Amino acid sequence: MKILIVDDEKDVEMLFRQKFRKEIKQEDLELVFAFSGKEAIEILEESDPPSVVYVFSDINMPGMTGIELLQIIKKKFPQIKVSMISAYGDSENYNRAINSGAKEFFTKPIDFTSLKREIRGVLNT
Amino acid sequence: MENKALKTQDSLFLKLTEALKKELSLEKGKEKIIGIKFQKSGEDWNLEELKVQDPEEDITRELSETKRQLKAVKKRLKAAEQQLVKQEKLASLGLLTAGIAHEIKNPLNFITNFSDLSVEYLVEIEELLQDHKHLKEIKDAFALIRDIKTNLGKIHDHGHRAEGIVRSMLLHSRGGNGHYDPVDLNALLKEYVNLAFHGMRANKNPINVEINLDLDPNLGKVTVNAESFSRVILNLCKNAFDAMREKAGSPSAPDDYRPKLKVSSFTENKKAVITVEDNGPGVPDELKNKILTPFFTTKKGAEGTGLGLSISKEILQEHKALLSIDSKEGEFTRFRIELSQKL
Ligand SMILES: [Mg+2]
Predict the structure, then answer these.
(1) Which residues form a coiled coil (chain A) (predicted)?
(2) Which residues, at least 6 apart from B104, have a Cβ–Cβ distance to it below 8 Å?
(3) Mean pLDDT of B12-18
């Protein structure tokens, strides 16, 4: 299963690769990274249909925001699941994300236990 | 004889009063009384008003009076304007704080998660070295690994702590409407007394305060609106610090005066009770009722808005809680909150 992580901070890749080290080795999990909304869409358009099944995106990014990205993905690739990972966990952001079609909303600092639970749940279906 | 003297005085007073009444009604008139002449006629006193017909002088006087009033109004306006500017600044500062607070969560995400990861790696290293523990070098390495794990634990804990501070900063800059939930009141007290203390230390004129928390471990959870209730705790602590700062700076304070804040929680008649006590200058009896009314402040100049305690009272009313004050001048002030919503 291919998962795309979108965040403007590069260290996110190192963090996720290390946190999911075992899952990448043992289970059928592949992580790809994009550091802007634009880059994320480019990755999704690489193959038709896209190989990515789940996108986790930051909200506050220069250029395209995570919410805009979410709306574009939901329009172009409605089959792809999208969840948000943001430091801005207030109800306004939360409602906007969920109303735009986000599956889940995770806050930063990321609780990897619940994030792993979510990914495992999708892996098993 | 005595009676007569009284009568004379009476009539004199009557006349004087009348003259004064006229004087007052002269504000808009054309006549001006410039003096009163007393004349005795027989047993009685006569009053003669010495008047001048001088409308111009009236106008001059009125004008200067108007000018004086205008000046006073202008002064008040200026003060109000300054207060507004200050509030505006505070509001924009609040927005700024909210933005910064959110952004701090990004580095905190890396701090807590990378420290956790490093601990995981160390555990793996320990597993790898397990079979060679008999070697002295490996034994030393184990000791080092243990220390590194402790340090990483500290990094994680302090990152977590910073996160808590950021969260409460956000809570207060938003000033929104929280929810009523069962809350670990002791944890809330610990967090916000600490926050108030550090806030005071980071601000102008910090003072040293000995803080004593006497929290009943059996208090359990109490239903409060954590967001607004924590504001009350912050406020009571802030008032205590201000009062103790005032006492510490006053020449009448004893040389060995040491500011002390005591915050207690306990159960009484099935109610959760919180007390916040300082050993500041105390509140005089005649002010005890006043200090809970809006805009009443004992703080000098622009230091206080006079709203802190009345807002606290309002918040507590929403909680159906009681706020009372006990104080002895020169010794202590103790605020007491009684929460009846114990679950
Ligand atoms: Mg970001």
Answers:
(1) none
(2) B162, B166
(3) 67
CATH topology of domain B179-343: Heat Shock Protein 90 (3.30.565)
Question: What would the pLDDT profile of B229-278 be if each residue is shown by its tens digit?
Answer: 888 898 899 889 989 998 998 888 888 899 999 999 999 988 999 999 99
Task: Kindly state whether B117 is in contact with chain A, defined as any CB-CB distance less than 8 angstroms.
Answer: yes
Query: Whole domain around residue A113: which residue ranges?
Result: 2-123
For an interface test with B, the pick among A7, A8, A10, A18 (most B C-beta atoms closer than 10 Å) comes out as: A18
Q: Is the pTM of this model over 0.90?
A: no
Domain boundaries, given as residue ranges, for chain B: 2-56, 91-174, 179-343
B117 to A87: CB separation less than 8 angstroms, yes or no? no
Complex ipTM above 0.90? Answer: no
Type of residue at B4:
K
CATH number reported for the structural domain that contains residue A50 in this entry:
3.40.50.2300
Neighbours of ion ligand 1 (CB under 5 A): A 8, 58, 60
What's the confidence (pLDDT) of residue B343?
A: 44
Q: What is the mean pLDDT of residues A91-101?
A: 90
Phi and psi at B212, nearest 5°, equal: -125, 115
Q: Residue B36, exposed/middle/buried by CB under 10 A (0-12, 13-18, 19+)?
A: middle
Number of domains in chain A: 1
